[in-house]
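Support reply, case 0932

Customer input (verbatim):
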Amino acid sequence: MDSKEIRQKFLDFYKERSHTIIPSASLIPEKDSSLLFVNSGMFPLVPYLLGEDHPEGKRLADSQKCFRSDDIEEVGDLRHTTFFEMLGNWSLGDYFKEEQLNWVFQLFTEYLELDPERIYVSVYRGNKEIGIDKDDESVAIWKEIFKRKGIQAEAVDFAEKDGMQGGRIFYYPDKENWWSRAGAPENMPVGEPGGPDSEIFYDLGEEHKHHENSPFKNEPCHINCDCGRFIEIGNSVFIQFLKKEEGFEKLPKQNVDFGGGLERLTMISQGKTSIFESDLFLPIIEKIEELSGLKYRENIKSFEVVADHIKAATFIIGDERGISPSNKEQGYFVRRLIRRAIRHGRQLGISKNNWLKEVAEKVVSIYEEVYPEIKENSSFVYQELSKEEETFKKTLERGIKEFEKMKDKKVIDGESASFLYQTYGFPIEIIEEMATESGQEVDKEGFYEETKKHQELSRKLSAGAFKGGLGDHEEETVKLHTATHLLLSALRKVIGDTVFQKGSNITSKRLRFDFSCDRKLTDEELKKVEEIINEAVEKDMIVKKEEMDLNDALKICETASFKEKYPSKVFVYSVVDSEGNIFSREICTGPHISKTSELGKFSIKKQEASSAGVRRIKATLN
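Our regenerated output:
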């Protein structure tokens, strides 16, 4: 069966059993700040699970778009994705365990034609500390279900310690078989609903069992281990309890919340061992093979990162409440997805410009009939992907070279990690991933401290706490401040006299310089600017300071940009060669170095748009 048929069979199955089919909610939660993205089918229905009447009745079913940011680092193991569809059915105080477990088994084995001999289930072990017993009721139901298929189903406990023990039904603790939005019972806030669940697993075969090189080879194999043999395909949650100050109390209505991953069900139905080879991903994988000239099975992790992350970004940007890449909240995750995909695309050797759009087009073609909003919003999706690709690709190579200089460090300190983030746009998660690949660690706490310092400094600079856009008066900051004078002069020499300074932000690590220009500079122009500045450095020009009346200064300083802010008396700084030729002359408040030879090599790290008609350059001195 293809994915469309599986999705429709599921919905039809429950429609035949008096369920109303409801549309998928937006990926972006509405009027709820507790979650950045809808990460389960349950989330949009929480008010009704707490007792509110749903306008469509007590029996509901749908296919819900979901995104789980916690799974970003898990992508690359044949079965994890960040974006997925959750096939769901609910009983809001109507039927309960007996009907639910019998129906889902019937759906899987008779309608989706899965082999019952390869199905295993888990149930809740109970927790005496919170006063909730073992779910023996579900065990009894499961034994009868398997018996009708001629399967003797033994219930065993502590499989995580003792292995399979010939069992078919397995008891597990809170971590595996209790479900709430907050996870285990001890993490649930007061007023949160939750309860025990019963998960269904499919046996992919002995060949996926622990092997000699498996990281799990010394651990017992059981249905909840990560060796790859068993895969979860469905979870029936029995939302029976409400967290109160004094513990747990039963909800007035006993609810059922089922979720089954469409991607995994499709993989199994199509006889695949990777969800990325099912029809929900295959066109995307084939496009990446075309772009890279490589094969998926020989480059699993990078292929899966690109395919999953661009699919997720396409759905989030193309949502009815679409989110663009940014450095805040949901937008940060969109940016993180795209930039990680670009880095893995580079590892695959993809060099074509605007290639993310080609991958996203395949995503749209797979889902446009089921989720028409991503087709309707596709132009916006492609535009945002292209912008992010153009921005990050420019700094990616330089950032990787900068990272290579840190290879001798066992631990990448917070300052260095923050520099990669601030200067090259590397999210901390990408820095961590690169460090792991090279056997290094990252001081995350130090990173966050340095980033906080940078943000506080930027706020001070915006408020004018330091003169001339300087974050401090340290030697390196003073050098970079002087370098902005050379930069402005070089830009005017290369582009023309229409260039004026529009702002600056200077720290001890880098300069940021905004200037008037209504177009992107070419690589040749940027290289020429660097050459002009470094030639001035090599000539060891002097930096001359003079005090004069403002009117006199304005006559000789053509670059003066902030005339209304100058006092009646000003300082003019001139950069002059040994023969008296003036390279640069500006009104400025200082401080400056005395000779250009003190600067070192000037290097442009990044060019980007700052605002309409204004470009921004970030540069360093080495």
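We compared this against your earlier run and they match. Two observations from our side: The chain has three domains: 3-276, 293-458, 467-621. Confidence is low (pLDDT under 50) at residues 461-469. Please reopen the case if you see a mismatch on your end.
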